[in-house]
Amino acid sequence: MIISTTPTLEGRPIRDYLGIVTGEVIVGANIFKDLFANIRDIVGGRAGAYESTLRDARRQAFAELEAEALRLGADAVVAVDIDYEVVGQGGSMLMVSVSGTAVQL
Question: What angle do CA 78, 80, 83 make, to 5 degrees?
Fold first, then answer.
């Protein structure tokens, strides 16, 4: 499955547009990650636990997008947009949302 942020794929003409596909993942903040992130804020450095959680959420959202595209019979997803939002009471959760257009090449 080809997944691209561009609206077309060079040298690969789009034969049919199958519709918009999405993948959304919402992850909660963990109290221990928050504690260590606060310590890192004080002493400097990267918040590895948050980065790992963000990477995992993004991978899951792309997996959902791809699965939905495959169900439609797509060869590719073009014009993909990735969005990150803080949701929940006090911003306690992170939402990763990806969307694009499923196509047949």
Answer: 175
User: pLDDT tens digits, residue range 40-85?
Assistant: 555 555 556 677 778 899 999 999 999 999 999 999 999 999 999 8
Q: How far apart are CA 65 and CA 59, in angstroms?
A: 10
Tokens 């003409």 — which residue?
Answer: 13
Q: Residue 94 pairs with which residues in a beta bridge?
A: 27, 86
Please state at what angle helix 31-43 crosses helix 48-71, rounded to 10 degrees.
130
Q: Which amino acid is at 5?
A: T
Q: Are 77 and 69 in contact (CB under 8 A)?
A: yes
